Amino acid sequence: MAAAANPTKRLSKLLSSQSLFRRFSSTPEAQPTEKSLNLCSAVNQALHIALESDPKSYVFGEDVGFGGVFRCTVGLADRFGKARVFNTPLCEQGIVGFGIGLAAMGNRAIAEIQFADYIFPAFDQIVNEAAKFRYRSGNQFNCGGLTIRAPYGAVGHGGHYHSQSPEAFFCHVPGIKVVIPRSPYQAKGLLLSCIRDPNPVVFFEPKWLYRLAVEEVPEHDYMLPLSEAEVIREGSDLTMVGWGAQLAIMQEACRDAEKEGISCELIDLKTLLPWDKEMVEASVKKTGRLLISHEAPVTGGFGAEISASIVERCFSRLEAPVARVCGLDTPFPLVFEPFYMPTKNKILDAIRSTVNY
């Protein structure tokens, strides 16, 4: 049996060409005010703008004072001072709890969880406090100024404690928004929208792309709309839906499928809660088929919600069962990560199976 290809090397090769990534990202043509940035730098630039434009905004978390483990907060403390950018104790529950209180007092609280895998100690604060703050007070009070940033997903060597994709847990909770960008341009615009949104937001950043994804990003302040999906590749035979780093893998599968005469329409959901059902529904009614792919385990993953919703809305138009190409129902492995990940070849096999059903 041939050894499985290393998905980290494959994605690195795929994103090594800036022009390829820009084509995939559907970014507007370069302007004089644009600069080539990776995703990490785009997040950093968004945080600079947020702190500069609103004196009541704060960034805090474990190690953010010197830049954080991924260096997304480099330079913030030097520019804005330790009263606005500061380290916290190693306590995720405390980080989010503090953020809720800070936001409830009318501030913009930008909390960082060092890895999404460690967001679970803060689960109660997010789902029982932040998400319900406005509802339980009859809209007299809210913590809408809270944004929780967390690096999520595969990184190539993280294993079961540094590579998880926990987005589905939070998509079950009314009262918060869940957003995941696919590229530097998207990361900056979506993060600024999250910070300024009147609702608490969980913003998952695909750490696999922190330095692999590079494109031209406007240096000025801009925002991208939440809860609006985007068709980044038009097609007629099959609708494909994904988010975050998985979009690059799906794009690669789409190109290979096109060589076989299969036309795939690829949609980036971007906001998972509340998600853009109308755009996905319109696409599926056109193509008659749907494939969803994400890194999280298939059982209970957010792909299941998308599948159920589209079957309810498009049952009479479907020409094949909805396909899901996702992570396996196991803890995220280290040595066997190439077998766990939803790779291009797995997606391509699912495309063929769905179209030929």
Biggest sheet descriptor: 7 strands, mixed
Q: What radius of gyration results from the CA coordinates?
A: 20 Å
Tertiary shape: globular
The SSE order reads: HHEHEHEHEHHEHEHEEEEHEEHEHEHH
Helix-strand makeup class: alpha/beta
User: How much helix, percentage-wise, in residues?
Assistant: 25-40%
Low-confidence stretches: 1-5, 16-27
CATH class of the largest domain: Alpha Beta
H/I helix tally: 14
Distance between the termini: 28 Å
**CATH fold-level label of the largest domain:** Rossmann fold
- Beta strands, count: 14
User: How much strand content do the residues show?
Assistant: 15-25%
Number of domains: 2
Strand order within the widest beta sheet:
3-2-4-5-7-6-12
Overall pLDDT metric: 93
In short:
The protein is of the alpha/beta class and 357 residues long. 37% of the residues lie in helices and 19% in strands. Strand 13, helix 12 (302-314) and strand 14 form a beta-alpha-beta unit.
